[in-house]
Amino acid sequence: MSDFYRLRVSRHQTKMLKYMKYIFNDHFILILMFGIGGFGLYYSELVKSLTINQLMWVKPLVGFMWFASLFIGKLATLLHEADQVFLLPKERQMSHYLNKALTHSLVIPFVLLILMSGVTMPVLLATGIQMTPIIYGMYLLTLWLLKFSDLQLRLQFLYQDTANSWTKERLLWCVVAIMAIGSGLYIQPFIGLVIAAIFSLLNYVLTKNRLTTGTLEWSKGCSLEKQRMKQVYTFINLFTDVPGLTSDVKRRPYLDKLLATIPKNQANTYRYLYARVFIRGTEYSGLVLRLMIIGCVIIGFSSTSWISLLIAALFLYLIGFQLVPLLGEFDYMLMAKLYPLPSEQKVKAVRALITRVLSVVLIVFALIIFFVLPDKLTALMIIGGLLIECLVLSWLYIPYRLKKMQKVSF
């Protein structure tokens, strides 16, 4: 079964590598380089300018960042729906398969924890904490053990019948993680390491016992893996189309008033349909909301005018660019093709929707920039530049992309 998991990992990685060329394209790498450079410059200046009153908040903030980073990364079982039938005779041997899955799932979280702990070291040094390679190793090992315990609990959950025990164990893990991180930051790193090691050892024994005596919940395992892969494909879908990716639909009755503003006549048929897809679907509305929140957070913490302009312009472009595929939402519906309406109405409807979305995002960004930047004249100039970008996107770039996409679809 260990070899079987390695085979699945190989096939999974081959499939993921096909999407990597679309994610790490020239534009993304260029933006990433500028982003890392800008963050490094801003971070170094921030560390130098910290006052005594601000330093008292460093440890709580770093502790929160470490704790939040422990939630990154889930158990990658790579289970398929058909496994409930074809692997059922091998259930007693699935412990070897799942142990390999646990080991494989540790790689990315461990690397991210190295980056997170490394990034936060300079600001911890500013507080007067003595930092040596041994002390840093204790902090890092504490985080690794806590993440190992987290994945062990996720593995145990596959052998549990009720959700109550899972909730209690997760709460216990959260308490232990907070105690270990807090003890390491405020008392001694060794104490935090001991707490994490003891809890990890106990979980190791419980996991081994549950894998030996428990009954695997096949449907639960397949469902969790399906949810995990959907999250992965949703991220990849930001850069390229993913075949077979379906989005959830939510009623959202509180947004019915927005749909009611669209006149109910033949000329606004596609305008109503696309607005309904955007409001009640989770793919596009969720994407816009996530990008807008991330942009707001970055702009809110930036007091440099050119960084605010760059970030706001970048996120406006990303939001407009990611909404262009909305044009093909009804290509699979035969009845939509039978509407006695010209295809140009689809382009106009999507362009109008994207323009409204960009306008809302622009207003939100403008308010944050105006209140964050100390120089109000500079803030107004940045807002004016973003307004020009929004007009260029709405009247030149978006129509060009939509017409190009329409030609390809036909």
Description of the molecule:
- The protein has 18 helices and no strands.
- α4 packs antiparallel against α9 (163-186), α8 (133-157) runs parallel beside α10 (189-213) and α13 (269-280) packs across α17.
- The chain has 2 domains: 1-237, no CATH class; 253-407, no CATH class.
- The relative contact order is 0.07.
- The chain has 410 residues and is mostly helical.
- It is 76% helix and 0% strand.
- Pfam families: EcsB.
Features:
mainly alpha; EcsB_ABC; 18 helices
- The percentage of residues in β strands lies in under 5%
Cα separation of the termini:
48 Å
**Total number of domains:** 2
What shape does the CA trace take? globular
Q: Can you give the helix content as a percent range?
A: over 70%
Provide a count of the helices: 18
- What is the number of beta strands? 0
Rg is: 25 Å
Return the string of H and E elements: HHHHHHHHHHHHHHHHHH
Pfam families: EcsB (PF05975)
InterPro entries: EcsB_ABC (IPR010288)
GO cellular component, one term: membrane
Blueprint (SSEs and pairs):
Elements: H1 2-23, H2 26-48, H3 52-55, H4 58-69, H5 83-86, H6 94-105, H7 107-126, H8 133-157, H9 163-186, H10 189-213, H11 218-236, H12 256-260, H13 269-280, H14 283-300, H15 305-323, H16 334-337, H17 344-372, H18 376-409
InterPro entries: EcsB_ABC
Pfam families: EcsB
Summarize the structure.
The chain is about 75% helix and about 0% strand. The chain has about 400 residues and is mostly helical.
